[in-house]
Each structure stands twice: as structure tokens, then as C-alpha cells.
Amino acid sequence: MIHPTAIVDPAARIADGVEVGAYAIVGGGVSLAEGCEVAPHAQLLGKVEAGPGCSFGHAAIVGADPQDLSFEPATDSGVRLGANNTLREHVTVHRSATQGGWTSIGDGNFLMVGTHIGHDSQVGDGNVIANNCLIAGHVEIGDRAFLGGGSVFHQFVRVGDLCMTQGNSALSQDVPPYCIAQRLNRLVGLNSVGLRRAGFDTGLRTELRRVFRQAFLSGRGLSSALADLLGENWRPETGKLLAALSSPSRKGVCFPKSRS
């Protein structure tokens, strides 16, 4: 189901049931699994691999060259998407800046209007990224996060599972798993509602609150607090939070206001 005005390279691999709308462009390196939809004026460029059920909104551009001044256009790289991702109008996803590299988006993500995913970023599963979020290069986003509209993320930062960010936040440090961040690198607590909806039981939520308070609100240095916490037995989900605090990215970790 390809509109007669669409430009589709004969080398593109298009499964049965794919729809390509009016004036869309699909390059020769593109692979679209069954059930994908390419809306009018969308462009899939270079090497783009999309799993089943992905939707590319009006004027979305996926696979364009990265915004890296040292990038060599002959670099063999691409964008890889899992299944059932929705990219709404004007979403942009840039290909990797590394030879053989991929900008990666997992399964079941919802990228709202105007979202940008920079080169070499890795996005997990089930995330909701609201309008006009800007994700720089080499950012890692876990699973089931909700990023508020207009939030911006500096290159190389990590955003953990089930995080939430307030709209218009500016984050140049890691957001640990299960936390809420706002403004400039400020944590405001755990995403308690999100954890409950995700099936985290009362005991686990209590355990996570204890770790958060001891790590950030005890008045001790983070390293000292972590030394005590790491000596105890924790459930795997809590272990993930401790691991993120113990081994952050090169950017360090966001803190509550009292420690920022």
C-alpha cells in the first residue's frame, strides 16, 4: 500500500501490509517489518531497521546524519527500532556517528511531536517522551520512563527505569532509576505513583524510599552512605538503584536541592 507520489527505493525491504503515504521518502537501506506505517511527508533515510507495527508520523525524519562536526558521511551506521513504536509528527532520530554503530530504540515507545533522539543514543522499552524533548547524543534511557514536554538531556547522561522528569527540565547529570527530576539537575523524590502502577509492592517501595533517604537526605556524603547500603541484602530492583548510584556516567548524578 504505497501512495503513487511516494519515493521508495527499489532496494528497500518492505514487508506485506506496510503503508507508505503521499510524498514520503523511503531509502534503499530501509527495512520495514509487517504493519509499519509511514505517514505523508515522512522520510526514512540511510540504514533504518524497524520492527513490526512501527508508525512514523507526518514529516518525521529517521536516519539522517548526526549533528557531529567531526562526522564522516561515508560512515556505515544506522537507526534500529524494535516493535510497536510510535513516532509522531516531526520526530527526528539521527543515525550513529560510529562506524558500524546504531542509534537504538526498543519496543513500545511513544515519541510525541517534535522529539529529537541524537546519534548513538539507546532508548529502552515502553517509554513516553513528550512533545519537544531533546535527547542529545550517547544518552541512555531505560524502560518505562516518562519525560515531560520540553525536557532537554545533555550528551552521555543516563536516565533510569521508571523515571519521570518535569516539563522543561534541563538535565546534564544522570537521573537514577525510579526517581523524579525537575529544573536543573534536581531530584525531588521517588516516582511513587509510577512504581505502584508498575506493580512494585509496598515492601519494595518502602525499601527504595529507605535507600533514597539514606543516600541523599542523611546529611552524609554519597560515597559513605553507599558503603553502608551496599553491605546489605536487597531485592533486585533496589540493587539496580544502588548500581546506578555507585557507577554513574561521566556526568555524575542529580541530587535533591539540599545537596545540589
Give the structure's gist in a few sentences.
By secondary structure, this protein is of the alpha/beta class.
- Class of secondary structure makeup: alpha/beta
| SS summary, helix count | 4
How confident is the prediction overall: mean pLDDT? 96
Note the beta-strand portion: 25-35%
Find the CATH topology of the largest domain: UDP N-Acetylglucosamine Acyltransferase, domain 1
List segments where confidence is low: pLDDT < 50 over at least 5 consecutive residues. Answer: none
What's the Cα radius of gyration?
Answer: 20 Å
Strand order across the biggest sheet?
3-6-9-12-15-18-21-24-26-27-28
How far from one another are the termini? Answer: 54 Å
Number of strands: 28
Biggest sheet overview = 11 strands, mixed
Task: Please report the first level of CATH classification, the CATH class of the largest domain.
Answer: Mainly Beta
CATH superfamily of the largest domain: Hexapeptide repeat proteins
Question: How does this model look, in words?
Answer:
By secondary structure, this protein is α/β, with parallel strands linked by helices. It has 2 domains: 7-138, Hexapeptide repeat proteins (UDP N-Acetylglucosamine Acyltransferase, domain 1, 3 Solenoid), CATH 2.160.10.10; 195-259, Up-down Bundle (Udp N-acetylglucosamine O-acyltransferase, Domain 2). It has 4 helices and 28 strands. It has an 11-stranded mixed β-sheet. The protein has a 9-stranded parallel β-sheet with strand order 1-4-7-10-13-16-19-22-25, with no helix packed on it. It has an 8-stranded parallel β-sheet with strand order 2-5-8-11-14-17-20-23, with no helix packed on it. A hairpin with a 3-residue loop joins strand 26 (179-182) and strand 27. Helix 2 (202-216) runs antiparallel to helix 3 (222-229) and helix 2 packs parallel to helix 4. The longest helix has 15 residues, at 202-216. It is elongated. It starts with 6 loop residues before the first strand and ends with a strand. 42% of the residues are buried.
